[in-house]
Design a protein that fits this description.
One of its GO terms (molecular function) is histidinol-phosphate transaminase activity. Homodimer. The structure is a single chain. By secondary structure, this protein is of the alpha/beta class. Helix content is about 40%, strand content about 15%. The chain has 13 helices and 13 strands. The protein has helices at about 10-15, 45-55, 65-75, 90-100, 115-125, 140-150, 170-180, 195, 235-240, 250-260, 265-285, 310-315, 340-355, and strands at about 30, 85, 105-110, 130-135, 155-160, 185-190, 210-215, 225-230, 290, 300-305, 320, 325, 335-340. The strands form three sheets. Strands 2-8-7-6-5-3-4 form a seven-stranded mixed beta sheet, with helices on both faces. It has a four-stranded antiparallel beta sheet with strand order 9-10-13-12, with helices on one face. A two-stranded parallel ribbon has the order 1-11. The structure holds pyridoxal-5'-phosphate (PLP).
């Protein structure tokens, strides 16, 4: 019997991919590359968390239905518990959605540039990914989008709003227009929604093909790996069939349930970041050699007149890590900076100013 070469055993779709790149931890750097919240838990919450985690029975599997966390989320979002699916990060839910809905020959569509995992997960599953380019200032090209939807008949459309990495938002009217022409699901990814202060959740009542995706990662709980989606219960029941049992570990379930009951801490962190976003944006606008793009998220995308790679390295050399997006089509010489604490933002602004001299 003929044996295959090792890499012939891997699907060509996977061989052609490039892995998602996340930076290693570097405590010596000001970390402004991953759109995390800059605020650690305050001591009172750490204490409450310690107590709650101490009760976790690690010799048992976690609650398979995530009842406690599910009901905390359902109350906060004012949706039925059955309208929710919880994931190990919203990444997992993107994978789950495509696994449950889309087979060979199916097209998945998104305006681009956008969050890279939509394409990576689609292609890994052997699906076609169609990116519809945004305009020169990253605005939506609605006629082109509609034309592509009609031509490609996508099973799933991903709309990140605010969009990563551009920071731009779609209006409700734009999303309703897309819902009206889309033949399949429209997934509105609101991972950064709290920073924009808006949501499409109220539209779920009359739009059964609308799916809202969200995450706790960007509002201070990235280490827990918890995402959720809200959709019509008939759809969530099907998604539950392909969700792996016990996908949310017991510590994360408990920690999220405890911390979500401190919405005042989350809201205050978001408000502080939004305040700092305005200050950083004002400084970037005034800085020669930099073109920042409007952002409703907790990060700002900007283009540099000098080569982006050089600016990235010069900023890094001063101890500040941002995201270099120069190799993404349409983002030549573009860097993305997460809004940090005021001290971190000052470090970044100083480093950037020096890098541009
Ligand atoms: C738009 C968007 N959606 C989803 C995610 C995934 O978030 P997580 O898997 O941490 O919930 C990210 C992460 O960067 C993102 O930018």
């Amino acid at each position: 019997m003929k044996t295959l070469r090792l890499l012939d055993l891997v699907k060509p779709e996977v061989l052609s991919l490039t892995a998602y790149r996340a930076e290693e931890r570097r405590p010596d750097l000001v970390k402004l590359d991953a759109n995390e919240s800059p605020f650690p838990l305050p001591e009172e919450l750490r204490q409450e968390l310690r107590y709650a985690l101490d009760q976790v029975a690690v010799h048992r599997y976690p609650d398979p239905k995530e009842d406690r966390l599910r009901s905390v989320l359902a109350v906060q979002l004012q949706v039925a518990p059955g309208a929710l699916v919880l994931g190990n990060g919203s990444d997992e839910l993107i994978q789950l959605l495509l696994l449950a809905t889309s087979g060979p020959g199916t097209t998945i569509l998104a305006p681009v540039p956008t969050f890279s995992m939509y394409e990576l997960i689609a292609r890994a599953q052997g699906l076609r990914f169609e990116g519809v380019p945004l305009g020169s200032r990253f605005e939506l090209d609605m006629p082109r989008l509609i034309e592509t939807i009609e031509r490609r008949n996508p099973k799933v459309i991903f709309l990140a709003t605010p969009n990563n990495p551009t920071g731009g938002v779609l209006s409700e009217a734009e999303m309703c227009k897309i819902l009206a022409v889309a033949p399949g699901l429209v997934v509105v990814d609101e991972a950064y929604g709290p920073y924009a202060g808006r949501t499409m959740l109220p539209h779920l009542v009359d739009q059964e093909r609308l799916v809202i995706l969200s995450s706790l990662s960007k509002i201070g709980l990235a280490g827990l790996r918890i995402g959720y989606l809200v959709a019509h219960p008939a759809l969530t029941a099907e998604l539950e069939k392909v969700r792996l049992p016990f996908n949310l570990n017991a510590f994360s379930q408990v920690a999220a349930a405890v911390l979500l009951n401190h919405q005042e801490w989350i809201d205050a962190s978001v408000r502080e970041v939004v305040r700092e976003r305005t200050r950083v944006m004002d400084r970037l606008v005034a800085l020669p050699g930099v073109e920042p793009f409007p952002s409703a998220a907790n990060f700002i995308l900007f283009r540099t007149t000098l080569p982006g790679n050089d600016v990235f390295e010069a900023v890094l050399g001063q101890g500040v890590l941002v995201r270099n997006l120069g190799s993404v089509p349409g983002l030549q010489n573009c860097l993305r900076v997460t809004v940090g604490t005021d001290a971190e933002n000052d470090r970044f602004l100083d480093a950037l100013t020096k890098a541009l001299r």
